Structures are given as C-alpha cells and as structure tokens.
Amino acid sequence: MSNFWSKTVQSTELLDTSRKEKFNENNRKLWFNLLQIRNDLKVLEVGCGSGHFTNMIKTYYPTCEVYGIDLDDNNIKFAKTESRKLNIDVHYQVADVKHLPFEDNSFDIVFSHTLIEHLPFDDFIKEQKRVLKKGGKLIIMRVDMVKKNDKPFMYLEDEINQVYSGISYPKNTNVGGYLEDPDITMQRLDQYGFNKIKFNYDRIIFYMPDIESSKKVAISQIEKNYQTKLSNAIFVTNRGKVSAKTKDKLLNLLKRQYEERLRLLNLNKKIFDFQSSLLITICAKK
Ligand SMILES: C[S@@+](CC[C@H](N)C(=O)[O-])C[C@H]1O[C@@H](n2cnc3c(N)ncnc32)[C@H](O)[C@@H]1O
C-alpha cells in the first residue's frame, strides 16, 4: 500500500478535477472511440487514479464489467466513493501493475492513461499482456508534453507565474522518467508479440467558453478551469511549505483571474481563449 502519488506528486482532488475537465460530456464520444468501448466488455484500467475514466465507462456502458487498479490507496478510496455517489458498480482495488490480481486471459480491454511514462516498459507491459484475452485490446494513452499552442486567459498571468517561480519544492526525479517516443513504444509492443499496432494523435480541446453553445456550459468550463488551478496552487504551496502570505496572494490572484473571466463572459465580450492537450493513443491486439 502506498500514498506516494497523492502525497508527493499530485493530490487526488487535483488529479480528479483535471480529468473531469479533460474528459467531459462534450467529448466523451471521442474518448470512448479511442478506448474502443462497446457494451458487454470486461475492461481494466491500470493506474486508474481517481477513477474518472473507469467511472465514465461504467456510467455510459452499464453492461460492461469494469475494473480499476492503482498503487495509491487514497486514489482508490476516492474512486470507490465517487462510484458509490454515481450509484455504479466498479471493481476498484489497490494493486501494482507489476502484479495484477487477475486470472490469465480475462479482459477484453486493458488500458492506461498517463502511466507508461512512470515505470520501465517490461514492468508496465508484462502483466497487462498476461491478463488480456487472446484477441483482446491493449490501449495506452499519454499526453504529448512537447507540442502546445494553447491561448490561456492572460489576465494576471505574469503575477501568478511570478509567485510560482518563487516557490521551490522537492522534484520527483523518477516521475515521468520513462517517457519515450511513440515509435519506440510500438517497436517494443511488436517485440512483445502484439499485433495490429496502431497509433492516434488527437488534440483534446477541453476549455473554450466563448464557442460553447450554451452559457451554462461556458460557466461550468470556467469554473472547472479555476478549480484545477486552485487545487494545483494549494498542492504546490503545501508541498513547497511557503508562507501563509504567499499562499493567500496566489489564491487571491487566481480568484481575481476567475472573476474577471466570468465578468467578460457576462458582458458577452469574447476573447476565444482555449486550452487543450495532445493525446497519444497506441492500440494493439494480443
Ligand atoms: C498521472 S496519474 C494518472 C491517473 C489516471 N490514469 C488518470 O489519468 O486520471 C498516474 C497514476 O498511476 C499510479 N501508479 C504509478 N505507478 C503504479 C504502479 N506501479 N501500479 C499501479 N499504479 C501506479 C499512480 O498512483 C497514479 O494514480
């Protein structure tokens, strides 16, 4: 059992708000297509974090049998609580992807989102291959860290960045330490005997309030965006052990930024700011 991720890398709440922002009602069809979800499948997410992906699958595909494992105890507790709130039955368990507590050849789909970059490939893949059925699909998702051309709302952004640049906190050297180009991952899968190896590259635009069809959706995007920034600020300032004054300053700047963004929306003054992430999806058949 471990709380490493939620205590030192990213709090469970931050992970969850950022995932709810990215994988939402508007773009869920794209995510489900990439994950190749259909009814009646037995699906496992490894490194499921706060459980947002697994919960979305069970909510929209209730006849699927859905499992989620994660090394972090806090994340699994959170995922279980969320699934109870949603009144869905997902099988969550604390476990290591290196030792999966499942039978050989038992899943139609085994997937992960932003896990591959955190451990050596052999450790990542061996057990996933074992628990996949013959003909089952392995889906590996991760974010492309390199390319980015978002247009964030810049009001007070320099002041906010200035506060962040004054905070020093211990870096996690082994987190993200196994990031590699997708061609290398595909070569490795080929060597592991996987077939029909495919690759997708998608830009997920998860925040674009001025081109939303309804004001309600626009407001909810601005609020989720603010919640993500707020959770991040709280986590960073707690880890960095900064003074209460600095923390207050940062939280106040973020609040003012959020209020200004809402004010512009209410005035119908469009600025077309947007945020996105580049998603790499590699799919292979056992
Ligand atoms: C970046 S988070 C992604 C969580 C989730 N997939 C998502 O995108 O919302 C990485 C997750 O992998 C988990 N993790 C790291 N190493 C693991 C391992 N060896 N076995 C299982 N989970 C692991 C962490 O606890 C963390 O929850």
Descriptive report:
The protein has one domain (4-285): Rossmann fold, CATH 3.40.50. Strand 2 (65-70), helix 5 and strand 3 (91-94) form a beta-alpha-beta unit. Helices cover 44% and strands 20% of the residues. The chain has helices at residues 4-9, 12-22, 28-35, 52-60, 73-85, 121-131, 157-165, 182-191, 215-240, 244-266; strands at residues 42-46, 65-70, 91-94, 107-113, 132-143, 195-207, 275-285. The chain has a seven-stranded mixed β-sheet. It is globular. The protein contains ten helices and seven strands. Helix 7 packs antiparallel against helix 10 (244-266). The longest helix is centred in the last third of the chain and has 26 residues, at 215-240. Bound molecules: S-adenosylmethionine. S-adenosylmethionine (SAM) is lined by residues 5, 15, 19, 46-49, 52, 70-72, 75, 96-98, 113-115, 118-119.
Helix-strand blueprint:
Elements: H1 4-9, H2 12-22, H3 28-35, E1 42-46, H4 52-60, E2 65-70, H5 73-85, E3 91-94, E4 107-113, H6 121-131, E5 132-143, H7 157-165, H8 182-191, E6 195-207, H9 215-240, H10 244-266, E7 275-285
Parallel strand pairs: 1-2, 1-4, 2-3, 4-5
Antiparallel strand pairs: 5-7, 6-7
The protein binds S-adenosylmethionine.
CATH fold group = Rossmann fold
Can you tell me the CATH class? Alpha Beta
Could you say which small molecules are bound to this protein? Answer: S-adenosylmethionine
Give the overall shape: globular
- First-residue to last-residue Cα separation: 30 Å
In helices, the fraction of residues equals: 40-55%
Count of distinct structural domains: 1
Q: From the coordinates shown, what is the CATH architecture?
A: 3-Layer(aba) Sandwich
